[in-house]
Amino acid sequence: MSIRNVLVVNAGSSSLKFMLFDMEAEQMLAKGQVERIGIENPLFTFTAGDYSEKQNLCDAPDHTAAVKLVCDALIDPAKGGCLKSFADIDAVGHRMVHGGELYSESVLLTPEVLEAFEKLSPLAPLHNPACLQGVKGCQAVLANVPHVGVFDTAFHQTMPEESYLYALPKEIYKQYGVRKYGFHGTSHKFVTLRMAEVLNKPLDEMNIITCHLGNGSSITAVKGGKCFDTSMGMTPLAGVMMGTRAGDIDPAVVLYLLKNGFSADDIDAMMNKKGGVFALGGTGSSDMRDLCSACDAGKPEAQAALARLVHSYAMYIGGYAALLGRVDAIVLTGGIGENSKETRAALLPAISGLGVTLNAEVNDTVRGIEKLISGSDSKIPVYVIPTNEELMIARETYAVTK
Ligand code: AMP
Q1: 387 Cα nearest atom in ligand 1
Q2: Is 0.85 topped by the overall pTM?
Q3: What's the pLDDT tens digit per position in 295-338?
Q4: CATH top-level class of 5-151
Q5: Which helix (H) or strand (E) holds 11?
Q6: 272 and 245 Cβ atoms separated by less than 8 Å
Q7: CATH number for the segment(s) 200-384
Q8: Potential cystine with 95: which of 10, 56, 143, 306 (Cβ 3.0-4.6 Å)?
Q9: Pair 356, 348: CB distance under 8 Å
Q10: Per-residue pLDDT tens over the stretch 129-166
Q11: Catalytic residue chosen out of the listed positions 62, 152, 229, 265
């Protein structure tokens, strides 16, 4: 079977984002999302070529109806007419969040795989059931095409035990699967492969540190082209400070708060939704743009929050540099890494102990483009590489089904 058009789907519990790629040219043909699925007044956003509709009311009582809406738009001549019929969709790639220890690579979503994936739901109770709803909706509408699962955790499955094992009684790992898994794997893999091309180096000889810095952030040590360690843990709460997530804290803080009358739900919300930049920035926002504007306006609280954020990035980068020994490049990606010149201008001096220098003039001009931003005398080159998780999912889907 020849594969050309790949639909990439990223399903949440009430949303479904999609992109359609022509894989012969690796060209994006259409993209959009359905929001508020199963809730009052669902919304549909769709772009294909010159055609665009923004947040129009639609009918989406469930994920199957949402997928039907997407496919109908893809074949509608009045909406760009990317495809002639549903049969022109050759494969569907699904973003699957938590593959546990079962999946170190992308796989065809057979009934057995879906059953095994469902059993991993306790590890990602918010995300995995939503992914399954998306897969089932797609399989109902596009029954005769291969569906491929691409897992956020897969790239990190090469971590050795010394990286992933928590120092807890072994049965906690064996019985409950409590260990480090890591996330954003699709993005770390995308920029790793791109970095190998840019450096013109064989993947298996490449030691790099990839920093996916966005609303959620993670930093990964890539050794010989494979994940050696990563900052997120069993859940995406661990690691560096993030938009609304606290990142690493002393685990005893949780017990202390529980004993002082906070409920588990209070603490969960504090750590996941009310922490990070939102908690410390003093702007009432988790957005880096707001934090940087407040820094520019000379607000001390915002400046302290930026310093705290950058400190947490620098600690991981420094630690991973020590573990890797030789670092061929540091990669910055994600909404902050790609766009926030202020954050980058604060970060590079914070890792000057590694011999890193900043080319401030170039850094100021970089927004969403691939560029070397370190100085010519920098001991480690630092690159901004825009990530493209959807294209990575399309490539994986193409590779699995071809
Ligand atoms: P992500 O989760 O990867 O979409 O990244 C979201 C983060 O990127 C938010 O904190 C945004 O403020 C930040 N971001 C996006 N665009 C810009 C920009 N032009 N300048 C600074 N930060 C940005």
Answers
A1: 3
A2: yes
A3: 999 999 999 999 999 999 999 999 999 999 999 999 999 999 99
A4: alpha beta
A5: strand 5-11
A6: yes
A7: 3.30.420.40
A8: 10
A9: yes
A10: 999 999 999 999 999 999 999 999 999 999 999 999 99
A11: 152
